[in-house]
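Example 3.2
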Amino acid sequence: MLLRLLVQAAIDGVWSSRKIDKLAHENVIYMYLTGNEKPNFRTICNFRKDNKELIVDGTKIKANASNNNSLSEEQLKRLQDIIEKGIKIDEEKDKIYGDKRGDELPPELDTKEKIRKKIEEIEQSRGKRLKRAAKTIIEAHTTGDENQKKKIEEKIKKAEEEIEISGQKSVSITDPESQFMESKKKRNELSYNPQITVDHDSGIIVANDVTQDK
């Protein structure tokens, strides 16, 4: 409870134990964090003084995501461009073939082989090859129903947001929040880093979290 109080105070730029004491009596946020216990300034001061040293330890756990399903920022942008063009084509076809069910594929894309051929043409025109993961996503989006297409578009959007926030060179489509970390076997794998913070003197765990720290 006191640790939560000190963390919130640090966020607010409050360092005086007496001011923190006052906030714990008057500020709703601080009252919530303390469970309305209202520790006095001496208790806060002693806690901070007695718990200066903390030890943080963690271990890297492989994420439920394949390294092969990670795409670079450039690949994501190209993937988004291709899918957006596909959506525009779908809209145009709907205007032309409005009397049909609406989920029929145009003749030039009515088989997976034709879809793959179309992707190859796009690659050649742009001079760079798409990763297999990107090709699989395009195929799934082209042949999927509206619900599947929406889910794929949401995954791509989330991956784009994560790569912008994290600054990574690539991101996993299946688990965008995981990051490449070096494992105990010295291999770069998509992983998470669960950590615990332990008080140096008592050995008591005071905090725990699952992080993206490498």
